[in-house]
Structures are given as structure tokens and as C-alpha cells.
Amino acid sequence: MLKDKAIGIDVGGTNLRAALVSADGAIIKKLKETTTGNVMDALKMAIESLMDDSVVGIGMGVAGLINRKEKKVIISPNIPAINGQDFGGLGGGVPVFIENDASTAALGEMWMGAGRDFESFVLLTLGTGIGGGFIHKGKLLDVAAEAGHMSIEQGGRKCPCGSYGCLETYASARAITGAVTKAIENGAESAVFKDYAGGNIYKLTPEDIYRAAFDGDNLAREALKDAGKYLGIGIANLINIMSPEAVILAGGLIGAWDIYINEAVKEASKRAFKSLSENIKILPASRGDDAGVLGAAHLVFHGEKAYTC
Amino acid sequence: MLKDKAIGIDVGGTNLRAALVSADGAIIKKLKETTTGNVMDALKMAIESLMDDSVVGIGMGVAGLINRKEKKVIISPNIPAINGQDFGGLGGGVPVFIENDASTAALGEMWMGAGRDFESFVLLTLGTGIGGGFIHKGKLLDVAAEAGHMSIEQGGRKCPCGSYGCLETYASARAITGAVTKAIENGAESAVFKDYAGGNIYKLTPEDIYRAAFDGDNLAREALKDAGKYLGIGIANLINIMSPEAVILAGGLIGAWDIYINEAVKEASKRAFKSLSENIKILPASRGDDAGVLGAAHLVFHGEKAYTC
């Protein structure tokens, strides 16, 4: 059998996605498992069910700080069960590659998605938290890229990371639902409370908030715009630092593009150096949940050559 | 004559430094001119006085955003006279290379200074403004690296760049003297006013403030510590984003290391991801005003190979 495929895996906080990917970027087979049980078991099962003789290696994108040389997760704030875990042995003979999940998403979009037309871009994953991955000269820049933990309001909200005013405490899904919930607790009037999440404000999702905003709810709209403004400040900082050709936005929150992202684009263009921002493209990722598994497979096919040198 | 030397030039806001540099990094001859007259004339004179048959090219580090391919200054906020100027023709036959001045300083420290032991580091120039240069895998990362224009207090001080709360509005020399001057205007008691700058608070320099702090003046001390705290926030952001092995600090303000930088180191270690910051070195640049001309000469000797690929 021709050795021409890779297993790409995206290990997230609640789901694990895995796929068998061909060398030209086609997804041959894919699966999804929950990681609410034993993550390591879920990983092994996914590998077992996709493994065949054509597989040359396994790539994994993991939410957290990783040590790719030692194939270890240094710290995964959202999946504590894998902190310190050694992923190198999971290949059962084939090599294992490990990266941060926002970095694999960036590689996936570069290879087969919205990043194809750019030599350099910053990808941000906008979900419960905010992650970052930097593509530079068609390769992955081997840096932490923890853009969600850039403080933009130095005396601001306490972040679980230990700092204050990190981008993700203002612009993530958790920040948006938190802001709405808190406002309602403090007596704000909002359709969100009555019409969504069965009247239970602690079950509100970002989707509920977006739908409410779309339906004209002011509180929901302001929460999304406020988060978007902060996102724009973070994007402006990244433009001034990384001077990318594009900023690609991924994750569930991009569904709220016309309110949340539009506000971010407006704020970023007010703040970033004009000469750096005037020609920049800010656009949505195009491969959705597949970007991570594609990027993880890309790592297998390219190894060290996937990275800037 | 052997073609084995380069002219390195550092074009700053008030001074222009130029040197004839050998391929092994020795400074053979150097000179300094003021740029308060006609900058382009000063540049031409410097080149003329250093040029000989052994020169293979001219490298320049310029304070501002540059377009290195077109050899043009896009915008130099502190030397408006060179905005849009084309530097390519200044070589009179030998090739010309142009870079941002913090990037050439980073290259100079990498080649012949405090950066020699590191594969990757962030260099910050702490002067009137704050500049940045990133070394990645022993090469210059080809990005804007405008670390001084990262907003860390989003609703904070208005920055000349158009944004608010940029790092340099809180942590630069201009920010420090500004804070002391304003406090004295508002009636604060301080030895700085009486004993330094001839009693003229508008002539206070960062050196005056450091000496006053060293002599026990509280206002001066607090101004330096406050600026240091903000610098630490900026450094923490850069650690979380760039995960360097070291942060190298250059520029006049590093003379205030025991107050200003110590505070920055303390704040950065509180805020950055522990796994990224615990082994990091934060240290002073060792080549002072020579780093820029050395880095500019390095560019001549290496061309495109000076950059990450």
C-alpha cells in the first residue's frame, strides 16, 4: 500500500475531531468524539479507527501550550487532563507531530482554505477563549502566538492566566455571554432572558445572543459590539507587530460577523498604522472545523519544513 | 583592493551614526553627525567620507516604517524630512539595504552583542519612543515589530500614531519626563524641579529624573517605577506572543535599570505565562550606539539571508 496519507487530529475542550487526509489535502474519512470522558482514551480510539498501512504519521493540534520537540502538552488550561501528557507514544510506530490548535488551524487555512492567497497572515480562533497562529512566508512561525493573552486593558478584568485585561477576557464567547448574564443579573431588560435559553440566563450561548441582537435586542447588540471593539484593538496591535497581509478569523463567533466582526474591523482601522492596515484583508476562515485536522496533517507531510527557518 | 567591508548607518531623530565595518564585525572607522539640518545631505556626507574601494554595500537603519524592497521610508514620525525618500540611489553604484532602526539594532546585538547566545530574542529600544526588532532562529523576522504601538491601556493616553494607550505613551523617555513635568505643574513637591535642569521643568531629561530618583526623590522614583510597570506589561504581551529566549533592552533608558527595568521584570513575571517566562533572560544590550551600524552592515553582508525564510 502506498504510504501517502496522514491522520490529522484536533483536540479541543469538548470535542476531538480526527481525519484521514491525503497528501493533496482531501479528507478521506473523518470522525468526531467527545472529550468529556477520558481524553487519552478518545485519542487512542480515534487513531485506531483511522489507522491503516497508508498512514505516514499522525499530527495533532491541541488547545494549549505545547513543547513540540518533546511532543508534550506543557499546559492546556481548558483540558487539564492532558497537562504534561506525552503524545509521542501514541503513533504505534509512525511519527507523531504536535502543535497548538490555533497554529494547526492556521496551517489548514493556509493549505486548503482562506489563507491560500497570502504569504503571511495572522489567524485568530474566536471561541470560548481566543487563540492565535501566525503564518509567515508560507510557513508556520514557531512562536507561542497566544494573542488571547495580550493585555489590552492593563488594569482590567482578571484573566484565568493570572494577568489582567487580556484580549480574551473582553472579546471571547465567554466574555460576551458573561457580559450579558451580568447585565441581566443587575436588572437590565432584555429579550435574551425571556425568549432564549428557556429563561435561564446561565444557559445562554453566543448563538442565542447573536439571534437576539439580530432580532433587535439592545443589550445583546451592545455586548457583541463591545466585544468587537476590543477584538479590533487586539487586531490593531497584531497588525502593528506582525504586519500581515491578512487577518483570518475562525471559530464559532464569526457567525456574528455583521455585528461583532464589523465593529472589530472599524476599530482596528482606526488604531493600526494606516500604512500597515490600508491594504490588509480581514476575512473569515473557510474550512471551519476541518481546518485543524488539515493543518495537523500538513505537519505530518512537511515536518520541520512546515516552519519558518 | 579586497571588497570586504560595508558601510553601516543608523539614522536617528537627532544623530546619524555611520561606520566602516569589516566582515568579521570590527568597526574600522566611525563618525557621528547631527540630523537637525538636512538629513539627506548628512547621509550623503557620511557615505562620502567612509566610502572606499573595499565597500561592497551600504546598510541603513532608519527610525520609522520602511519598505525594504523599494528602499523607501514609508513614514518616519520623528524624522518627517525623510518620509517617502528613496534611499536606493545613495549608493553611487554599490547596493543599498534599508531596515527599521530597531531591527538593525537587533541584528547588531545578535551578531556582535548581547544576543550572540540566543536563537530568538525580542529587542526593544527604549528612548524618546519605543521600537522593536525580533530575531527568530538566528535571523531577522521580517515584520513591522512596532512594539511601542501596542495598546495596553485601550482607553488611555492619546498616542501621536492615532491610537490610545500605546506602550510608548506610558513607558518611553517622553512618557517619563512628561509625567514628572505634569505632576510638578500640578503642584507636586520634588527635588527634580529645584536641583536639576536649572529649575526649568521643561528641560528635564530622563537622566535628571534618574539621578533625582537615585538621590531619593519620590516623584522621580514613582515616575520611573510606573513607566517600568507598563514596560513590564508590554514585555509580558511580547513573551506570550513571541515566546523568545531573551528580551534585550537597548537605548538611553536602560541606564535606569535598577529602578525602571527592575520594575518591568517584576511586572512581566507576574503577567506572562509562567512556562514561557520562567527561563527567559531579560538583559541589557551590550553594543550601545554601535549596535545599529553593526546590524546595518550585517544586512549588507547577508542580504536576503539575514531574514527568516
Please characterize this protein's 3D structure:
- The structure is a homodimer of 309-residue chains.
- Chain A is α/β, with parallel strands linked by helices.
- Chain A has two domains: 116 residues, Nucleotidyltransferase, domain 5, CATH 3.30.420.40; 164 residues, 2-Layer Sandwich (Nucleotidyltransferase, domain 5), CATH 3.30.420.40.
- Helices cover 36% and strands 22% of the residues of chain A.
- Chain A is built from ten helices and twelve strands.
- A five-stranded mixed beta sheet of chain A has the order 3-2-1-4-7.
- The radius of gyration of chain A is 20 Å and the shape is globular.
- At the A-B interface, helix 7 and helix 9 of A face helix 7 and helix 9 of B.
Secondary-structure blueprint:
Two copies of one chain form a homodimer.
Chain A: E1 5-11, E2 15-22, E3 27-34, H1 39-50, E4 55-62, E5 65-67, E6 72-75, E7 96-100, H2 101-112, E8 121-126, E9 130-136, E10 139-140, H3 168-171, H4 173-185, H5 191-195, H6 206-214, H7 218-242, E11 246-250, H8 257-271, H9 274-277, E12 281-284, H10 290-302
Parallel strand pairs in A: 1-4, 4-7, 8-11, 11-12
Antiparallel strand pairs in A: 1-2, 2-3, 5-6, 8-9, 9-10
Helix pairs in contact in A: 2-10, 4-7, 6-7, 7-8
Q: CATH homologous superfamily of the largest domain in chain A, by name? A: ATPase, nucleotide binding domain
CATH topology of the largest domain in chain A: Nucleotidyltransferase, domain 5
| Second rung of CATH, namely the architecture of the largest domain in chain A | 2-Layer Sandwich
Provide the residue-averaged pLDDT of chain A.
Answer: 94
Estimate what percentage of residues of chain A fall within beta strands: 15-25%
Total strand segments of chain A: 12
Multimeric status of the protein: homodimer
Tally the helices of chain A.
10
CATH class of the largest domain in chain A: Alpha Beta
Biggest sheet details of chain A:
5 strands, mixed
Query: What separation lies between the terminal Cα atoms of chain A?
Result: 33 Å
Helix/strand structural class of chain A: alpha/beta
* Shape by Cα distribution of chain A: globular
Total domain modules of chain A: 2
Q: Rg of chain A, please?
A: 20 Å
Most extensive chain interface and residues per partner:
A-B, 44 and 44 residues
Biggest sheet of chain A: strands side by side, in what order? 3-2-1-4-7
Low-confidence stretches of chain A: none
